[in-house]
Amino acid sequence: MKILKVRSDHGGEFENEPFEIFCEKHGIVHEFSSPRIPQQNGVVERKNRTLQEMARTMIHENNFAKHIWVEAVNTACYVQNRIYIRPILEKTAYELFKGIRPNISYFHQFGCTCYILNNKLYLKKFDAKAQRGIFVGYSKRSKAYRVYKSETLCVEEPMHVKFDDKEPGNETPEQDESVADIQVTEDTPESDQIAENEEIQETEITPDAQNEAASDEAQDGSQQANQSKNTFKYKSSHLEDQIIGNQESPKRTRS
After folding, report:
1. pTM for this structure?
2. Spans of all domains in the chain
């Protein structure tokens, strides 16, 4: 199978002298699409959109920072080439390219917690033998995994890794359990009896008791009003010999 034409945009990774020499050497015609017209290169643009949608979902599902988008896109492309099946050929892209069926038994969930065997640093007797990390992809050059370590803020490629794959939907939040318990207790007969007793106690209050409570409130209000009237507020600039009568009485000064 020989490539006859290659169509790309005017990106610097394609429009350069080494790539043009490579195309002339192998007899490949290099075509360009018009700027901002993705319809002229629909296959590539649809593939880019698929990778972008998958990477966005993987990042927001695990609450990752946006700077992890490179690892998310690489992992999405790595998985797509090994699991997508052609409708007509019933083969994956990896099988069409390599001629053998890929092995996906080593696949793990993106963003799951993993533990790395610490075989680099010198360990004392009671030091931990494993370090915690986050699984972010697969290595392209070796049979290793790519793990993000929050302690060092870098991505490593270890081989001895134990994974703790998460299963979304199986865990129930504590808040939902508490709400369910409250709803169950509210529907019990004991709660109904308590509510009825409270209603009966409210209806047993006589009108005389209500009148007494209202009169007490009125007396308290009048006392507070009298106290506010009797309080005398004067400035420090007023002299004592200019004040007539008691200082606690309302202010009366000479003209």
Report:
1. 0.56
2. 108-168, 174-226
